[in-house]
Amino acid sequence: MKKPVVDYRAFRLSKINDPQFSHLKLLLGWVVYFILFVLTENLIPAEDCTPMHCMLDDIIPFCEVFVIPYVGWYLLIICSLGYFLLYDIDGFRNLQKFIILTQLIAMAIYILFPSRQDLRPAEFPRDNVLTSLVGLIYSVDTNTGVCPSLHVAYSIGIASAWLKEKAASLPFKVFIVFCAVIISLSTAFIKQHSVVDIFAAIIMCIFVEAIVYGKSYWLKKFKKK
Fold first, then answer.
1. pLDDT tens-digit readout, 19-55
2. 150 and 106 in contact (C-beta within 8 Å)?
3. DSSP states of 143-167 as a string?
4. CB of 70 closer than 8 Å to CB of 137
5. Phi and psi for 50 in degrees, rounded to 5?
6. pTM of the model
7. Of the residues 7, 98, 100, 149, which has the fewest C-beta atoms closer than 10 A?
8. What does the H/E/C string look like for 72-104?
């Protein structure tokens, strides 16, 4: 079994500034995000938000089976951050910086340009476990603060981090990219996001990618090939 590059058994809060543990401070970005999420969800009324909608939203049907990859997103985040924490500290730093930047940009947009989507079905076309799960998601996550989609942004950031991971095999990288794509699509199929939110997230991620990894990273890769 692969040996972790850091022995976290020796970690104590008093050692948070030690070089071997200082990267853990980046996890505080999640605390800030959850605070901002609660504030934006509860303090910005839906009537002050601009509806996000495009023609593709009317073409894409509601399909509750996509709630599986939508929820799988949480597992993807936990497993990916866990791997990089154990085996690639630089990869963890870059991924967490990517996540924090997308969090801050998205939250700033949510506050300065409040958005919502009105795509959720009034009634589910079917009654099953999956639609019940979608209903639960609707109940805890309002239809405001949607553009850009952080579900999409985090998925892209995770895929980007894994594509740069030298220890990951090509089939695994293909699998991760597939997961990122299907998760992004799931946001539209369970009517959590407009397609507009997806494209906005992609644009944001291109910008953040250039900041975190340098705008010449992929250009150098393509030139080598």
1. 888 999 999 999 988 998 888 888 888 888 999 999 9
2. yes
3. SBS-SS-HHHHHHHHHHHHHHT-TT
4. yes
5. -85, 125
6. 0.91
7. 7
8. HHHHHHHHHHHHHHHHCHHHHHHHHHHHHHHHH
